[in-house]
Design goal:
nine-stranded antiparallel beta sheet; Glucose Permease (Domain IIA); 3 helices; 23% strand; alpha+beta; 12 strands; 300 residues
Length: 300
C-alpha cells in the first residue's frame, strides 16, 4: 500500500530591510521552496525626527522677528590705533635712509646717464665740427690752388697771346694804297744783281709801318739802298726798309707790328718813290718776302 504525503503549501512572510516582503509561494522545486518578493509601497508622510518641535523655517522666522523688535544691532569691536614704540623709530629711520639712498642712487644713475648722453652728443658734434672745418680748409686750399693755377694760366695765355701778336705780320702799307712793281728774283739792267726784295710802289711821303715785332738795330743811309731802317726780330731775322725819304724810329727802340718806321721815298738807286722790303733770316742772305709772309699767314 502506497501512502501519499499531502504536500501543504506553507506561505511564510519575511520583511526585508527596504520594507518589502518576501512571500514564500509554497511551491517547492526539488525539495526547495522559492521565495517571491512582494513590494509594498508606503503612501504615508515621513515621520518627524522630534515630534512636538516646530520646523526649522519657523524657528528662523521667529528669530528674525525677535531681533527686529528688540532692535539688536551687531557691530564689530573697535580696533585701537597702533602706536609705534620708541624703540621702533631707529628701525624706521634706517629703512627711510635706505629708501632715500636707493632713490638718490637711482636719481644719480639717471643723471649720470643723461650726462654721458650729453657728453657723447657733444663729442659727436665736436668731431662733426672738426670734420666740417677740415673739409672747409681743404676746399679753401683747393680754391686757392685753383685760383693760383688760373692766374698762372691767364699770365701764360697773355704771354702766349703777346708772342702770337708779336709773331704776327702785317702789311707795311695799307691795303689798296700800293702796287707791287717788282718781285723777288727778277733780273734787269736796272740792278747789278737780280732783285733781292719786294717793291711797293706808293706816293712819296706815305707812312711805312713795321711788319713784325722787333728792335730797331740800324737807322741811316746805306748807299744804293738809300735811307734804310733795319728791325731785328726775336728769332734773329732782319727786316730791311729801304729808299725812305725820312725816318720815324730810332736805334734801340722796340717796335711791334703796325708801329711807324718811316716814309716812302726814292733815295739811293731808285727810279721812283717806292718801299724796297727785304727779309734776311738769321741776318743771312735775303729770301722771298712773299713766301716768308705766307708762312705767317700774311699775303701781300
Amino acid at each position: 500500500m502506497t501512502s501519499h504525503r499531502a504536500q501543504r503549501s506553507v506561505h511564510s512572510r519575511r520583511t526585508t530591510s527596504d520594507g518589502s516582503r518576501d512571500v514564500d509561494s509554497g511551491a517547492s522545486i526539488g525539495g526547495r521552496r522559492k521565495a517571491v518578493r512582494v513590494g509594498v509601497r508606503h503612501t504615508g508622510g515621513r515621520k518627524k525626527l522630534f515630534p512636538g518641535l516646530p520646523s526649522v523655517p519657523s524657528l528662523v522666522g521667529a528669530a528674525v522677528l525677535a531681533l527686529a523688535a528688540v532692535g539688536v544691532t551687531i557691530s564689530q569691536p573697535e580696533v585701537a590705533p597702533v602706536v609705534p614704540a620708541a624703540t621702533d623709530f631707529p628701525k624706521f629711520a634706517h629703512q627711510a635712509s635706505v629708501l632715500n639712498a636707493d632713490t638718490s642712487m637711482g636719481s644719480g644713475s639717471a643723471l649720470t646717464g643723461r650726462a654721458r648722453a650729453v657728453s657723447r652728443d657733444s663729442q659727436r658734434e665736436a668731431v662733426q665740427d672738426a670734420a666740417d672745418a677740415e673739409l672747409q680748409a681743404q676746399a679753401e686750399s683747393q680754391a686757392k690752388e685753383r685760383n693760383a693755377a688760373l692766374r698762372a694760366l691767364a699770365v701764360s695765355a697773355e704771354q702766349y697771346a703777346d708772342q702770337i701778336a708779336q709773331s704776327l705780320w702785317q702789311l707795311p702799307l695799307p691795303a689798296g694804297s700800293y702796287r707791287l712793281s717788282s718781285r723777288f728774283g727778277e733780273c734787269s739792267y736796272l740792278w747789278a744783281n737780280c732783285h733781292t726784295g719786294l717793291d711797293f710802289a706808293a706816293p712819296s711821303g706815305s707812312q711805312i709801318y713795321n711788319v713784325a715785332y722787333g728792335v730797331v738795330t740800324e737807322v741811316g743811309y746805306a748807299g744804293s739802298y738809300g735811307n734804310r731802317t733795319i728791325v731785328t726780330l726775336p728769332d734773329g731775322t732782319e727786316m730791311w726798309y729801304c729808299h725812305q725819304t725820312s725816318f720815324a724810329a730810332s736805334v734801340g727802340e722796340t717796335v711791334v707790328a703796325g708801329d711807324p718806321i718811316g716814309y716812302v721815298g726814292s733815295t739811293g738807286n731808285s727810279t721812283g718813290p717806292h718801299l724796297h722790303l727785304e727779309v734776311h733770316p738769321g741776318a743771312g742772305d735775303a729770301v722771298d718776302p712773299m713766301g716768308a709772309a705766307l708762312v705767317r699767314g700774311l699775303q701781300f
